[in-house]
Here is the input.
Amino acid sequence: MKINIIGRRVEVEESLKQIIQKKLTKFDKYFRDDAVAYVTLSHEKNAERLELTVSSGGTLYRSEETDQTFNNALDTAVDTIERQIRKNKTRLEKRLKEGAFRSAGETDGEDEEPFNIREKTFIMKPMSPEEAILQMNLIGHEFFMFRNAETGGAAVVYKRKNGGYGMIMPEK
Here is the structure.
């Protein structure tokens, strides 16, 4: 697994990089060698924030943790992703073993516009609404945009306040 460590307004010490690499080797049993992990470290008021994203076989696993130290946040993030994998083991089994790596080309753009819009781009692979809901839950978002495998068009699945899910598709 390739590991990218990013410090946002934080200098990442070599000892912390080694700890991160050691803890992430735990995932080698789940992912093929072409998996990529992104660890973003930042400091917020009185706490340390760690974002861990693992990309493998076109599927993203994501955890965002805030704690007193980066070590504690890392432990929690690793446990969260491992729990996501175990919880969805039967659904993910084929992708974890057979999935070919596809980069998700995410970029963070912080513009000087009045709305402070953050832009992200990603590859929209065709999938079913059920797969899109699984992907949304894995990355911990409230919505997920995807290309519907049945119609070929773009669609969005989202979590409803009542606990269910919804899907938005353009009118033909």
